[in-house]
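Deliverable D2.4 — example input (structure tokens):
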């Protein structure tokens, strides 16, 4: 079961909430695992539903008209590269690793319209995926009018597809 929750107060991403224009968090149960938070993120993007990849492709075509960058696809990662080989500053699909520990990974991206960060945080028997967005301008506000409702469908669908249990 996937539930919307508050961003875990002990997480690193919770320190990034000040001034955020959008944030949310979803959690799901997981079996006890020695796998790192980044390993869990890689599992999520490896199992990305096809409809989400199609939406990302559409997003990339539309935003190119207003000068935003083409991010590629969420699952555009090297499946042969293990989580242990990634470092802060490395690209993982559409994001760059901003913070990395066994318990939490924060991945982010900045463009002229906004700054987004996504956290995967291991809790005792759950994993929490948080998103924090800081909007830079009117383009970012318009963008989020369309993206926020889709985001609220994409994250739970991605967690369901990851099959953590």
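Example output (designed residues):
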């Amino acid at each position: 079961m996937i539930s919307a929750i508050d961003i875990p107060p002990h997480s690193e991403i919770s320190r990034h909430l000040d001034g955020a224009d959008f944030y949310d968090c979803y959690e799901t149960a997981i079996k006890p695992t020695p796998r790192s938070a980044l390993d869990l993120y890689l599992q999520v993007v490896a199992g990305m539903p096809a409809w989400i990849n199609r939406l990302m492709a559409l997003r990339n075509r539309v935003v190119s008209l207003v000068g935003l960058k083409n991010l590629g696809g969420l699952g555009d990662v090297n499946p042969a590269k293990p989580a242990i080989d990634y470092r802060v500053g490395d690209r993982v699909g559409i994001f760059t690793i901003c913070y990395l520990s066994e318990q939490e990974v924060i991945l982010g991206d900045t463009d002229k319209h906004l700054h987004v960060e996504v956290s995967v945080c291991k809790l005792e028997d759950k994993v929490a995926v948080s998103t924090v967005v800081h909007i830079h301008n009117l383009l970012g506000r318009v963008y989020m009018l369309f993206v926020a409702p889709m985001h609220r469908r994409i994250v739970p669908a991605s967690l369901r597809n990851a099959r953590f249990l």
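Strands lie at 2-4, 22-29, 91-92, 95-100, 104-110, 114-122, 126-135.
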